[in-house]
Design brief:
Blueprint (H helix, E strand, L loop, with lengths): L4 E4 L2 E2 L5 H12 L5 E8 L4 E8 L1 H18 L15 E10 L3 H19 L3 E5 L10 H5 L2 H8 L21 E5 L4 E7 L4 H11 L4 E2 L20 E2 L6 E8 L4 E8 L7 H14 L4 E7 L4 H14 L8 H12 L9 H4 L1 H6 L11 H9 L7 H24 L8 H36 L6 H30 L2 H10 L5 H26 L5 H33 L1
Parallel strand pairs: 5-7, 6-7
Antiparallel strand pairs: 1-4, 1-5, 2-4, 2-5, 3-4, 8-12, 8-13, 9-10, 11-12
Helix pairs in contact: 1-2, 2-3, 6-7, 8-9, 13-14, 13-15, 13-16, 13-17, 14-15, 15-17, 15-18, 16-17, 16-18, 17-18
Length: 562
């Protein structure tokens, strides 16, 4: 199962005292599993933005420790700065990055807020997706009046905090915790030096648009509403802020954008909109620039978008899809673009120990034949399933490129994408099976002297054993799901690749039967008889069904080959 990842971007009301910032950074780093990605202090604003990420549980722990440390070190009665603020920890948003929904992220935000109120006795509010009322969704509305105005504001019934006491804390102030989508800072490069023309394009595409004027759109009198405020004509893109500027370092103008919700406006949609509006003004987009980090999915989506435009299969390796995105968006025009340094999931994984899936074929074989008990049959079964999925995907990709089959490319691309996803899952299960074995070994190594220790050890062994059953059962399920891909490719794919489909089906048989052996051997020591009998019955039925279907595919291959 893919790990859940969230990002936390707390803003602290201190940007000048490095000793304070170092101590906050230290408590964040003190949480195992959290990676501190960036610390961005501002002297004029007297404010610092920290960025860290990891699994939800550890990120929430790091955020709590950082909030607590800010309360200890930052005295808001002495704070001055240009940026609006209301507390020592001013705002603390959580952002879903991978394999986690916004609804789940909201739950984590609320857990954090409730803990801050309960353990630190500090007041605060929930905003954006975590807001408890529509009026509190907008951060600017909550923060109105700032620190100086909260002494009276917090006492008003409509501003009773969502967590913590309804009383002003002079030293800390108040804070806001929320859940929001990832914000991408993104610049598009133009073949012009004109800031005015770049601004015109920015006004075309940004959500706010441009101010309406009477008569001449450039020199006419601004149109005002009933309150005397300028009336704006909305631009093309929702959730986009944009401005044009000239970058002396590069000698070009850019459209500088904040994509405040990439689920509403993606990077490639913003790029294409700027291209369209630039061409209308006789200007050409030459590339783009990503400021900071980006979620992997954003570049996967972009790569697939451009592959679709080329009528090419999207069922190719992840790194190849990202390469297409980088080249199509021109992200490497101004400087080299290194995915390992710009994609948040890759940054988080940097420095991790070598995985089995990262080994060469020879290295994997050598690791298997060594004296170590892992990798064993479970990992080999998962690998066999991944190879079966890869063979089916290969036939789909070859078929999508076959001369004369251009009208069928999308049919084969859909199968290839399905097969590639299963190959990825099964490859990850190669390492997860070994991790399951290690969990059992760790449980057996727990203290075993007192009655309490014996009970805890026994419980840990049973939990680890159950996990060691669930992993190979998942291998059986995902390997079985490969068979429709293989069946479709044997029946409709390139007939010169029939043997590949047959070998793929043989791999799936090995994967499912091998994984079933691991389910059985691990279930033998499980005390929960109800669970044991249920999982063995399900696994046995699944093996029978998969072997029958795989044999039918292999028979069809023999029939067609002759």
């Amino acid at each position: 199962m893919q790990p859940q990842i969230i990002e936390c971007v707390p803003n602290f009301s201190e940007g000048r005292d490095s000793k304070i910032l170092d101590q906050i950074a230290e408590v964040i780093r003190s949480v195992d599993g959290v990676k501190l990605l960036d610390v961005d202090p501002g002297k004029a604003t007297n404010r610092t933005v920290f960025t860290f990420a990891g699994a939800p549980e550890v990120v929430i722990e790091a955020a709590f420790r950082a909030i607590k440390k800010s309360y200890e070190l930052i005295d808001m009665t002495r704070h001055t700065g240009e940026h609006p603020r209301m507390g020592a920890t001013d705002v603390c948003p959580l952002i879903p990055i991978a394999n986690i929904s916004m609804e789940e992220t909201v739950e984590w935000a609320r857990r954090l807020g409730e803990r801050v109120g309960r353990e630190l006795n500090l007041p605060g509010y929930f905003y954006e997706f975590a807001a408890t009322t529509p009026e509190r969704k907008n951060l600017a509305v909550i923060r109105a009046g700032e620190y100086e105005g909260f002494a009276s504001k917090i006492l008003r019934p409509e501003w009773k905090p969502d967590f913590g006491p309804q009383e002003f804390n002079p030293r800390f102030g108040a804070m806001v915790i929320g859940a929001r989508n990832f914000l991408v800072a993104y610049n598009v490069n133009l073949n012009t030096t004109s800031t005015r023309r770049a601004n015109a394009i920015a006004f075309d595409v940004r959500e706010k648009g441009r101010a309406l004027r009477e008569g001449d759109p450039l020199t006419g009198k601004p149109v005002l509403d009933a309150n005397g405020e300028p009336v704006f004509e909305p631009g093309m893109l929702k959730s986009v802020k944009a401005i044009g500027w000239f970058i002396e370092e590069y000698g070009i103008a850019q459209i500088s954008m904040n994509l405040t919700d990439v689920t509403v406006c993606s990077v490639h949609e913003a790029f294409e909109a700027v291209k369209l509006k630039s061409e209308e003004r006789g200007i050409r987009v030459t590339g783009s620039e990503l400021v900071g980090l980006i979620p992997k999915q954003s570049l996967i989506d972009a790569g697939k978008f451009y592959l679709h435009k080329q009528n090419r299969s999207t069922g190719i390796p992840e790194r190849e899809i990202i390469k297409i995105a980088v080249k199509s968006l021109g992200l490497d025009e101004l400087k080299p673009f290194d995915p390992d340094k710009k994609i948040i999931e890759y940054v988080l994984n940097a420095g991790e120990g070598k995985k089995l899936a990262d080994l060469t074929v020879e290295g994997f074989v050598n690791e298997t034949l060594s004296e170590s008990p892992a990798p064993g049959g479970g990992s080999i079964s998962a690998l066999a399933g991944a190879l079966g999925a890869a063979l089916g995907t290969m036939v789909a990709n070859l078929s999508s490129h076959k001369r004369g089959w251009d009208d069928k490319w999308e049919y084969y691309s859909n199968w290839a994408e399905q097969g590639a996803a299963l190959a990825t899952e099964l490859t990850q299960l190669v390492d997860e099976d070994t991790a399951a074995f290690n969990k059992i070994m760790d449980a057996f190594g727990l203290p075993n002297k007192s009655d309490a220790e014996k009970a805890a050890r026994s419980e840990a062994i049973q939990a680890a054993t159950r996990y060691a059953i669930e992993v190979p059962y998942r291998v059986m399920q995902r390997a079985g799901a490969v068979l429709p891909v293989l069946k479709a490719m044997v029946e409709t794919g390139m007939q010169s690749s029939l043997s590949d489909g047959g070998v793929g089906a043989l791999c799936i048989k090995t994967a499912v039967s091998g994984a079933f052996l691991n389910v059985k051997i691990n279930a033998a020591t499980l005390k929960d008889e109800t669970y044991k009998n249920d999982i063995l019955a399900k696994a046995s039925a699944l093996e029978s069904a998969v072997l029958s279907e795989a044999d039918a595919i292999i028979a069809e291959v023999h029939k067609r080959i002759g």
